[in-house]
Amino acid sequence: MRQLAPELWVTERPLRFGGLQVGTRMTVIRLSSGELFLHSPVRLDPALAAALEALGRPRFVVAPNRFHHLFAGDYVAAYPACELFLAPGLERKRPDLKIAGVLGDAAHPAWANEIDQGLIRGVPLMNEVVFLHRPTRTLLTSDLVFNIGRDSPALTRWGFRLLGGYGRFGTTVLERLFVRDRPAARASLERVLAWDFDRVVLAHGQVLEHGGRDGLRRAYAWLLA
Question: pLDDT tens for residues 182-218?
Fold first, then answer.
């Protein structure tokens, strides 16, 4: 795992989607209780389990949109005390998972003192819930934005060029197509943009260490205008 800030780590894994190697990233927050909040879980292996247990007790796992759920069950199986929270719609897509709740705008009391959250409405294909770790001014996203650069494989760079999302922190043409209710999506983004954040951790591409709020506003200028 790689530490980004006090009580904030990430771990990255290869992941192929739509024929492209896009990679994926899990974010780990150590709460003031010492319990771990795991965002967008990646495959759990013995090395990762040991690294997590060295930090604290894995306690809360969030599958933040309708795509980022593949490995969520690994953690509940490995840690019986773990509570799993799903983005809206995943409870129907993954009836095999034992869940503690469905995510929305209200943060769970266990993390509400440190983490805010908000559902991006109007995009039912994803139903993404984003999170703000207030102590480090870090926004956690999954597929809301991408940051695919020169470190990505050639085929991935080519694919994101075609989608209009290569070489910058931003969206692709797909995000525009996924929006079904523009006023609802706009209102959700405006709520997020009112938060105080600088860093953006995303699932695919490079972490944006600074300028995250302005970057997100530019990325969604086509929706916010």
Answer: 999 999 999 999 999 999 999 999 999 999 999 999 9
Residue 180 one-letter amino acid: R
| d(C-alpha 27, C-alpha 8), whole Å | 7
Distance CA 35, CA 55 (A): 9
Q: What is the pLDDT of residues 136-187, one digit of tens each?
A: 999 999 999 999 988 888 888 888 888 888 989 999 999 999 999 999 999 9
Say if strands 129-133 and 138-140 run parallel, antiparallel, or are unpaired: antiparallel
Q: Which domains, ranges and CATH numbers included, belong to the chain?
A: 2-224 (3.60.15.10)
Within 42-142, strands assigned E span 57-63, 83-86, 101-102, 115-119, 129-133, 138-140
User: CA 116, 178, 62, 102: dihedral to nearest 10 degrees?
Assistant: 80
Half-sphere exposure of 106 (CA within 13 A, CB side): 4
pLDDT tens digits for 108-128?
999 999 999 999 999 999 999
Task: Indicate the residue type of 220.
Answer: Y
Long-range contact list for 208-213, CB < 8 A, 24+ apart?
A: 208/147, 208/169, 209/4, 212/139, 213/139
The answer for residues whose C-beta is within 8 angstroms of residue 170's C-beta and 6 or more apart is 145, 146, 147, 215, 218, 219
Q: Which residues pair with 39 in a beta bridge?
A: 27, 62
Q: Which residues contact 202 (CB under 8 A, 6 or more apart)?
A: 25, 141, 142, 144, 145, 146, 147, 208
